[in-house]
Amino acid sequence: MPHRIIVLGAGYAGAIAAGRLAKRLRREDVAITLVNAEPDFVERVRMHQLATGQPLKPRPFSAMFAGTGVQLRIATVTAVDADRRTVTVDGEELGYDTLVYALGSRWNPQGVPGTAEHADELASRPGALRLRDRLARLDAGQPVVVVGGGLTGLEAATEIAEARPDLKVALAAHGALGDWLSDKGRAHLWKVTARLGITVHEHTAVTRVEHDAVVTADGRTIAAAVTVWTAGFAVHPIARASGLEVTDTGRIVVDGTMRSVSHPQVYAVGDAAFAMGAGDKPLRMSCATGTPMAWQAADAIAARLTGGKLPNTPLRYFNQCISLGRKEGLIQYVTADDRAVSAVLTGRLAAVYKELICKGAAWGVANPTLGLPSRRHPVTAEAAVTAGA
C-alpha cells in the first residue's frame, strides 16, 4: 500500500510542498493528495492589484499538476484529528500517513466593533473582489481609509491612490509610518505617500468601524466611504481543534524540519506554522517565509521516508519587498533575523525587482516539479514506519 500524504491548502507553501514531494518520491510508493477549496491558484501577494481592477493571470491547478502524480481534491477542510490521523473534507473522512498542514491565514478583525460588518479585507480573493466592486462604485472625492501600517496596508493604500487619484485615500497606522524600516526606507515612504496624496495618520488606533467612518482611540472620527482592514492576520481555528500543539494564537508549533512537536506524522508550513528562524526569533507570516518552509518540509518528509539525510538549512531573511503602486517600490535589506539595515533599493528599479519576485514565486507554484533532480530513492518500509512514529 502506498504511503498516503495529504497536503491541506494550496497557497504558496502548500502547492510548492506538494510539487516538491512529487518530484522527490517515487510515484508508485506514495499517494499525494492536495486539498484546496478553490480550483486555481490565488496570488495572494497581488490582492491589492485585483482590488483596483487589474486582471490577474488564471493559474488552474489541473494544469499545474497534470502529469505529476498529485491528486487534486477541490473541497473544503472542516476538521483535522491528529490523534486518529484523519482529515474531514466536505463531510468525508480521509486517513493519512503524513499530513502537511498549509491552510494559511485569513484577515483578523481583532474584535474591533463594526469591522466585520463594515470593513473590507484583502486576505482572500473574494474579499479583494468585493473591495474592487465597492471602489468602482465610489464617486470622485470620496474618502477611503486603509487601517494598518504593515506591508499589506502600505501596498493597498498606495495601489488605490495610484489607480484612483480622484479619491481621498488615508492610511491609519498604529505606530509611526514604516517604523520597522531604516531611516532611508521611512523617508522613501513619506516621499511616495506625499506624491500620491495619501493622508497618513500615525500612532492611530482604530477602536470602531462605522459604515461611513472609523473612530480612533483618542476620539477622532475619520470619514470613510470604504474602510480597508489590514491590521493583522489570524489562522483558521481548525488547527487549535486538531489536537496538535499550538501557540496562544493557534499556530502549529514545529521544529526545524517543520514537523509538529506533538505529532510526528504532521508537518505545518506557511502562516499556520510557528517556527523559529535566525537569532531564535519566530518567522513572520509572509510568502518569503512560506516558500522556504515548504522546501524544508518536503525535503524532510522525503528524507525520512527514504532513509536519506535530513535537510539542515537555516531559514533566514534577506530583504523585505514592498510595492508602492505600479511605478514605485521599496526593497529594504535586512539581517538574517529580519532587522532592517541602512541599505535600500527604491523607485522604479525597486518596483521591477518586486515584480520579478512575485512572478518568480508564481512560477515556482505553476511549475511544481521543474528545477529539481529526478526521483531517485524509493520509500522503504522501515523508513516509513520510523517517519510516522
UniProtKB/TrEMBL annotation:
<protein>
    <submittedName>
        <fullName>FAD-dependent oxidoreductase</fullName>
    </submittedName>
</protein>
<dbReference type="GO" id="GO:0003955">
    <property type="term" value="F:NAD(P)H dehydrogenase (quinone) activity"/>
</dbReference>
<keyword id="KW-0285">Flavoprotein</keyword>
<feature type="domain" description="FAD/NAD(P)-binding">
    <location>
        <begin position="4"/>
        <end position="298"/>
    </location>
</feature>
<dbReference type="InterPro" id="IPR023753">
    <property type="entry name" value="FAD/NAD-binding_dom"/>
</dbReference>
<dbReference type="InterPro" id="IPR036188">
    <property type="entry name" value="FAD/NAD-bd_sf"/>
</dbReference>
<keyword id="KW-0560">Oxidoreductase</keyword>
<dbReference type="Pfam" id="PF07992">
    <property type="entry name" value="Pyr_redox_2"/>
</dbReference>
<dbReference type="GO" id="GO:0019646">
    <property type="term" value="P:aerobic electron transport chain"/>
</dbReference>
<keyword id="KW-0274">FAD</keyword>
<comment type="similarity">
    <text>Belongs to the NADH dehydrogenase family.</text>
</comment>
<dbReference type="InterPro" id="IPR051169">
    <property type="entry name" value="NADH-Q_oxidoreductase"/>
</dbReference>
